[in-house]
Amino acid sequence: MLAARTFQSLAQRPSIARSSALVPRATPANGTQQVPARKPEPSPRINVISPVSQWPEGIPPAMGGHFMESGAAAPLSQSRGPGIDTTPPIYTYPDGDVDVSVVIHETSDHAAKGLADLVAQASAAAIKAHGAFTVALSGGSLVKSLAPLADRSDIDFSKWHVLFADERNVAHDSPDSNLLAAREGLLSKIPVPAEQVLAIREGVGAALAATHYAGLLLNLGPGVLPVTDDGQPRIDLVLLGVGPDGHVASIFPNTPEARDSPDWVLPITNSPKPPPERITLSLSAINAAANVAIVALGQGKAEIVQRVLEVQSLPGALPAQLVRPKHGKLTWVLDAESAKELHVADWDLSGRKSPFHRSAVPNL
Predict the structure, then answer these.
(1) In the sheet that 160-164 helps form, which strands lie side by side, from edge to edge?
(2) Which burial class, exposed, middle or buried, applies to 95 when counting CB atoms under 10 A from its CB (0-12, 13-18, 19+)?
């Protein structure tokens, strides 16, 4: 029976047609002139290896529709060729110098204390400048590194407005909630007014949650959250971790969210990490911040730290490399374990090219 079914499927599968069979051609018998089909020109951004020996007459205008060995029909493709009728993704690396510091602490505990100093300084400067302090938190292990803030007596927490750089679209009491992690690890230990903690809207889809969260930010008003000339929020401090794939917030490699966007907050419905639905600050909003800190501690971060800081990736492949505040300061907070793969002795701090392939060392 298996052989019979296989034979039947093979007999029913449509033949693979070349382009000459799918493009109508006149014959001398009907008295009309034969006009060859025009071959579309590929995009100059696509490297096409020629000749394509599999299709001597060019890539067929339609492929697929045949039966695969599993018995399922292959999807029909209408591609006109590589680079044709496509819009390539544009990942923007802001021009000009970026104010970057890489701070390496001896241990993770020292790094946490150093991070607390950084937060305290940013808070004091913002409150002095405009009477409030906006700070965006990320999920993961970052909140644990903020524990020393609970012991600080030099911070006016009543002026804080706590945002989230990204959040999972789950209930506030879900174990997956960044809000819950922040409450348990930090917010329950410092006197930030509850109404000044901006939480995701529960019970709606990611698109509506992102729109609602952007509205919460806008409703803070320019006195708390100024808006830049290009229409982005001027957050006082954005605190980010970095994943092993180079993602920051919920901006993952080679995704639409890694591109510039006029939106402040973006919805995500297919996150490569569960849960699939999330919201995230856009890269444009992150790069509009006054201060951004990327915190990467422990041996498990060593490989990605080295890749991000010393090896220029293909555009969009490492979102952490796209964090380049336009009119702010970027600080990397590391410990000895996360920095152990770096070749700091080879960095040229004068601003010239680094010895690393296709890389330029930040102005440290």
Answers:
(1) 99-105, 329-335, 291-296, 237-240, 133-137, 160-164
(2) exposed
Half-sphere exposure of 213 (CA within 13 A, CB side): 32
Q: Which two tokens stand for residue 26?
A: 């006149």
Kind plus residue range of the DSSP H or E element containing 103: strand 99-105
CB–CB of 97/363 below 8 Å?
yes
Distances (CA, A) of 108 to 196, 255, 298, 302: 29, 31, 7, 13
Under 8 Å between Cβ of 207 and 266: no
Please calculate the CA angle 244-250-254 and round it to the nearest 5 degrees: 70
The closest of 148, 150, 135 to 198, measured between CA atoms, is 135
Partners of 1 in the β-ladder: none
| Cβ-contact 183, 177 below 8 angstroms | no
Q: Which ranges in the chain belong to alpha helices (H)?
A: 2-12, 19-22, 108-130, 142-145, 178-185, 206-219, 283-287, 302-310
Let me know how long the chain is: 364
- For 44-58, what is each residue's pLDDT tens digit? 555 555 554 566 666
pLDDT digits (tens, 9 = 90+) for 117-153: 999 999 999 999 999 999 999 988 899 999 999 999 9
Q: Which 3 state secondary structure label does DSSP give 329? A: strand
**Residue 85 CB contacts under 8 Å (≥ 6 apart), including other chains:** none
Q: For the beta carbon of residue 53, count every other beta carbon within 10 angstroms.
A: 7
How far apart are the two ends of the chain, measured CA to CA in Å? Answer: 71
Return the DSSP state at 313: P
Helix (H, G, I), strand (E, B) or coil at 144: helix
* Residue 175 CA from chain centroid, whole number: 23
pTM, to two decimals: 0.74
Looking at residue 14, the DSSP 8-state letter turns out to be P
